[in-house]
From TrEMBL:
UniProt xrefs under Gene3D superfamilies: Potassium Channel Kv1.1, Chain A (3.30.710.10)
Segments of this protein annotated with the region Disordered: 237-275, 308-343, 545-573, 686-767
Basic and acidic residues bias spans: 266-275
InterPro entries on file: BTB/POZ_dom, SKP1/BTB/POZ_sf
UniProt-recorded name of the protein: BTB domain-containing protein
UniProt domain BTB: residue ranges: 27-102
Composition bias type Low complexity, residue spans: 545-568, 733-749
Superkingdom of source: Eukaryota
Ranges annotated as biased composition (Polar residues): 237-260, 329-342, 686-732, 750-762
Amino acid sequence: MNLAPLSPSAADIQSHLYQSFLQGSTADVALRVHGSWDAVYNLHRVVLIQSGFFRSLFTSGFIESSPRLGNNGGLHEIVVQFDDHNITRAAFEICISRLYGGGPPLHIAPSLIPSTSEPLTPSFPFTKEYPKTPENHHPATPRFLLSLLATAVYLSIPSLASQAMSSILSTIGPHTVLKYLNFALGKHIGNTELFGEPDTAVGLEHVAQPLDVNKVTRESIASLQSTKGKENVTVPLQSNLKGGSQTDFSLSPPGTSYGSASDDESDRHPTDEPLMHYGAISDKIGEACACWLARWGTDLLEYELRENEKEENGTSTPVVSRKRAKTIPSDSSTGHPSSTGYSKERASVPLIWSRGGLNAEWVAAIISADTFFVKGERERYAFARSVVELRRQDGVIEIEEQEWTRLFEQGIFYANMSMEEIINISHDISPTTKRPFVSLSVLQAAHWSQSVLRNHITIGPSFGNLSSPPLTSLTPSPRDKELGVTQTTADILAYISTVNSDVENAKPYFPVPSDSSLRIGDNGSSFNTTQDGTSLSMDQLFTSMHSSHSSLPPSSPTAPRSTSALASKPPTSESDFFGLLPPRYTASSCILSDPSGKSKWSSYPPYRFAVEFWDLDSLKEKSRLHSHTVCYAGSLFNVYVQVVRKKGQVQLGIYLHRQSSIDPIPASSAPSSLVFGRGDRFSGPSPGNVSAFHNRNPSLPSVPSTPSNTSHYSPSIYPSSRSTTPISYSNAPTSPMISPSSGSPSSPSVMNSNTLPATASPVTPPQPYRDPRPAISAYFTISCASATGSSQTRFTSSPDVFSVSQSWGWKSSSLRTEEYMDIKLEGSGTGSSPANKEVSLRATVVLGLV
């Protein structure tokens, strides 16, 4: 009888190795670590070489690859100096324990995890009591996750780096966004005592042999570094090891561009300590934070204004003082469970817009961004005014005032406001500085710009434009689709070559885009494995951090579209606020950016507005759910979404629609659980019986006593398709859920309150003039925010022809996800009453004529 040879199981081998690690038995190398802590670890080469760093160290011909005896119990001793103080003892020990197949499980507090039902996390705005961290689990605080990422990247352990990365992106919220953003900019992660986390990994307290720093001085370390031919070898942070983590990881000296997004003095990076940047990984975290701030910024200001009002009235009584919230927006104040007991501390609202939150440069960039969720330019101005005055309450700082000047002059497109709004702004005086927010010359230039554009549309210029480069076409006839208001780069170059004017050289230009689809921020991936299930390498991990980008060729109702994708777009960086703020072009920068001279530009700023759709899971197939209607350049526009089923696949389309001036205005989507207040704003319950939204944010829901049950979708950019609706498609609603009325009441009300999706009575926007052309040419971008706000999907179209009642947009199965809507069975109807939670999709639109 033949017997199969018996051998230890994989679990037995792993258990044996892990016990050897815990006991330090049969070790063949001693790591002498110096950095934010000093200790010796007795380890095993055969296990360590799973790490790219140690594999290079032991197999690439270095002195460490030869077995030698040292002074530490006969073990070969290697001195490792961590100059990156983001690498902590607990994170290092977790990394090493994972190489042995063990270590404590990580516990992320539920209070830090946003969801579709609580998108601003359960800990916002007021924390609850949470139980302590489970026994034998290590608390994965935001600080620890950042340290784990930094350590895993340095040691080249991609599986652990990807886990840390996914955990960071899934815990972006009000109490973590600035910490994560500052990390992306190279700032230090902070000290452990502020976060209630242990210095050592739980359960691994005895694997290290702590060194007495009084005996092991920095001078002795330096002497070890200078020793040659000895057994002891020092490995500094920036060792250029073959096969190791050769990524964009870099250590920047003090004074480099990487810094802090916060203006809180207590939260600044020490000037004598280098800033750490981790290449594409840092940029991906920065992208996610920038997307989150653009998505939730308007909501958070309302909380801050209420807290500020409470302080002024002496009615604010949080357990954590407001002063502490300004200086230490720490996780211990967010209800994060410590490893020792319950968290009973109630968090005050973290500062984002107030001084002590974002610095002035980031404030200006976010408010100026095309994807910042505000209803329109008037609301953008009102929001900027509120933030600036809120910060001025703590004193006027000259460097901030310079940013505010640029914000009000360049970040808001007054040319897209009505004349009445421009006049009102010209009379708006700061109560703090006693000066206008916007200079009269800026408003006059905006009025001139809108008047010239109106003349192009309604009459056509009877003379050459004396203040612009020559136009690419003559005055359009009523049947021309293009206005001829764009110039090529070559036109601009020829013009400024003949005009010696600083004013003309500083004049802004806006690029006419090409077709593209772009995803920035959290891409929804765990970054753990490749498509075939194998583990990622460090190079693959960094590659996966780069933004997905494809170019979609122009399409028309008669021409088929290609699905080929072009080259990837370079990743975002700090210079463009991680994709938040596109570059500002002047004549000279247009020329520098386009050596070919063929790109097209417009001197007229595009029209920007935001839309929101509620209860999409109740939308019937082929029914349209519209946004509010806007007027731009003599035409009416709105956005609608539509559900389409094809071969068992559910797709959600989002379209820009040129509304007929004759047909009734469609009713707009509205939250079913809220009662409309005056004008366009919503009102509802709020904490502390504070009044509902101020009228500066008219399209946003009020702040409830618990986080808003709003959810949004998180699409990917594929598979998607551009499509257009037929010109003959009736603008009338396709379901009783959207029932327009011919009137334009001053006080809209909820329609069909017993049917979802709920809609508001239609409001016809003021239309000072009409574009007489039956067809126009326009470019546009629709940016859709994910459910929790940590990513954006941007669809951009090169100029398309919009006939009256025609739509252009995209439909994709990826746009209909479980994040914000439930997939109903075929034939199921709409709900008869409001659901337990509001389901909404937020998007921003950029629209320009050519």
